[in-house]
Amino acid sequence: MEITRWIGLAVCFGSLWAGPWEPAVAEALEPLVRPEAGASFEILAQDPLVEGVIERYLLDPRGEVEGLLLVDGTQLPVTSRAAAQLLHALRPGDRVRVRGRRHQAPPVVQPDLIENLSRGTTFAVPLRLDLPMRPQEQELSVRELTANGSVRVLLFHPLKGIVQGLLLSDGTQVRLPPDASPTLRNSFREGQRLAVRGNGTENRYGRALEAVAMGYDAARLVPLEPSLDRLPSPVP
Questions:
Q1: What is the DSSP letter of 189?
Q2: What letter would DSSP give residue 4?
Q3: Is the pLDDT of residue 22 over 50?
């Protein structure tokens, strides 16, 4: 009888304990497992920053796609880890509308959402750290290349806002060495005629190299040492 009474009290107090607290606990835990309301709509609510036509893919010297260049010169950086998705969703000639953020370099827009108006699809741009490292990032497969042409577009680093390369009239994307001096980076102008030697790749998406020597004349190339402030003047 005594045992039965204690069991009854335990059940009774257990019910009182569980009753009032269960909803409170559930309510407290719910935000931890429920997606934030409106999080996926914040980008959609932004006004489009850019609308234009894709001219070409932006490449790194290994030939990996790492963004888009629009006909009007707007540069849209996208991590090369998302290259496969980007290539599937967007192609040169497609008209796009872009939502995102402008960086300190005026031509650069960090895209969050790219609407493909030509196909009626949308590409949500992933963050680099959200994707696994691809095997190609651990390998270096380049060869010596040369290029010759006038500067069409100055290409900017997506985060630092500095000139990191050039698009030449022959279609080659030239990447400056990481230790190139700020003065040299700022010395380039659209329309300048340049000759370049470096290491890079040519594939169906384009042609790109990292410059090791450069000049106004193919016969007078100079190594791009960190101390180099500007290229020697062309011979009259």
A1: -
A2: H
A3: no
Right CATH for 142-223 from 2.40.50.140, 3.30.70.920, 3.30.110.30, 2.40.30.160: 2.40.50.140
| Domains of the chain, residue spans | 47-135, 142-223
Percentage of the chain lying above the pLDDT 70 cut: 72
Q: Label residues 43-78 b or e (16+ Cβ within 10 Å = b).
A: eeeeeebbebebbbbbbbbbbbbbbbbbeebbbbbb
Question: Smallest Cα–Cα separation from 153: which of 141, 135, 169?
Answer: 169
Average pLDDT over residues 212-234: 94
Contact call for residues 188 and 231 (beta carbons, < 8 A): no
Residue 48 region by backbone torsions, left for phi larger than 0, else alpha for psi between -120 and 50, else beta: beta
Tokens of 90: 């967007």
pLDDT of residue 233: 85
Taking the CA of residue 81 as centre, how many other CA atoms within 13 Å lie in the half-sphere pointing to its CB?
12
Residue pLDDT, tens place only, 68-95: 999 999 999 999 888 889 999 999 999 9
For 177-204, write each residue's pLDDT tens digit.
999 999 999 999 999 999 999 999 999 9
